[in-house]
Amino acid sequence: MRKRCYLLTLACLMGLTAEPALCADAKQVVPTMKYVHVYADSAGVSHFREEHLDFAPGRTEETSIHALAANGRTTLLRLRVGAVEDWHNAPRAWFLIVLQGASEVTTSDGEVRQFGPGALVLLDDTTGKGHRTRALGTVDHVAAVIPIADDTPVTGAK
User: Fold this and answer.
1) Claim: this prediction has a pTM higher than 0.90
2) CA nearest 31: which of 80, 68, 73?
3) Which of 83, 108, 120, 147 could form a disulfide with 129 if both were Cys (CB 3.0 to 4.6 A apart)?
């Protein structure tokens, strides 16, 4: 539990400045995300260090992902400005926390909502038609996704 809290805190405290990096096996530019690492050296003195997270290509050219934990459960998702993810399901029930940018989500019943920085959304449509997502604004939409504990859908949860 402590590790998950640490990872969530890390995700929320990161500096969210993106810069491109060239993907090794393609000419596609995959953005990175800068963050500040506070660490202690061998003498116990704390320091700041600028670091970055690399994003790997996602399902489409407009999406990319970065797994925060070694087991790949806590993930950062990036949707490029103007990108649209057609109808899709959440791969598992998970909380999505918007860190940067905004998105518009359309559910299969036709309702449309917009989510910006700080929004917390439980995506639990692991079956059925799913939802459609569109990045809004002038900066990439970046969100942290954290699977629920038992990886089972929580349909009907209140």
Assistant:
1) no
2) 80
3) 108
